[in-house]
Queue: 2 jobs
Job 1
Amino acid sequence: MTDPKIHKTYTSIPGFKFGMISPDKLEELAAIARKYEVPMLKVTGAQRISFLGIEPERLKELKAEFNLPDKPPHARNKVHHVQACPGEKWCKFGQQETMAMAEAIDALVLKGPLPYKVKVGISGCRMCCCESWVRDVGLVGGKNGWRFIFGGNAAGKPRIGDIVAENLSTDEAAQLVEKCLNFFIDTAKFKTRSARFMERFGIEELKKGILD
Ligand code: SF4
């Protein structure tokens, strides 16, 4: 039975991306959570932090103090679900710098709204801790650069993505992801996930469309 003292409220906290946080920032967040009597924090699937279960009046006060929007401000021509592992800078197995890659993907401004949700998984080596093979966009670091995978999905009908290109620099990978997502916008029907699109369209047709 649901505990009546638990409120089904939440708010995402801006400024926390790709699951990375400094000890100072974590203490700041903890102080805010204590001040507003937040009973639980959640590291979300998109590697952000949400405050959960806040008493509604306290939630209003918190949103007012930090100028938080009622709903996350989701520009429809951007990618919003970017996960990245610690990568070369922090992990002894890392072969590419994942944070630079994640920032480059996060900065992309596409030509229009995406047909549906696009999740991005960026892994710094072939061990794929960010499950890049089952994300709409997967990027996997290797010693010669990035492997770009498109059309993966881990949901109701899982699909392993297709390799689009390999041995890309960070800039080349970001440019190719942008080109691929713009092609997806032009070609896929509204509300089509990349996995279903790729089952119908096929990797060879995609390559013809986006590789020079
Ligand atoms: S994918 Fe590789 S680099 Fe990233 S956390 Fe896992 S082992 Fe480390």
Job 2
Amino acid sequence: MGVEITESPVSDEEFEAMQEFVHDYLQASVETEEEGGRMRWYPWHSAEYRFNHIRNVVDLSVEIARKEGANVDVTRVAALFHDIAKLEAEQDEHAEVGATIAREYLTTHGDYPQSFVEQVAAAVRDHSYQGNLMDLSLETRCLIEADILDKIGANGATLLLLRMGYESRTHMDAAEMVDRVVERGVDAKERIESDAAESIAHRRLKRARWFKEWLEAEVAEMDAGGDPDVDDVDAAER
Ligand SMILES: [Fe+2]
């Protein structure tokens, strides 16, 4: 399906070393944080959650990049670095800071072509872009689509359910929370451009709807109506 085999500048060993670097970087960001800072009680502010999200985004973006004929190495390395600064920088700066870290890493480890380094850095820098995805490179698009998809799947749903506990809600809010995942899924399908991401979004949306129906069907008085009022911290999860 229009997949071009180009020589990969990043070996599996190199990619593993990058993964370790990103993992340790996130861990160190949390360790140097001041006590109780930056909503640490929310799971997505932990290094474990962030690294796991990054792994999901790497896998999803590679799947999309392969099907869409994007440069897989640019995409997967950008996906790996995209949230590296998430725990140390402010939300509106983390993409730019992440791009700087990625560029620095790639120019000091191995002998990567300058164009490769710049494409990776650009994708990391632009991954928070809120405008039309067609304004961006194909690789950046694959990254953003993967980032969106992780929020509307099992990971996104679990995170919202977990958050109910942190907010002292009861399980009776579960259908509302899952309904929020459904709404996100609908928004995601609007924004996504590639056929590959579209079909993943479609599958995920179907599952979220099914989960909501399941809750409503089996739990007395469970109902997705009302406003779960979770928009305020959505940006923090990107
Ligand atoms: Fe992300």
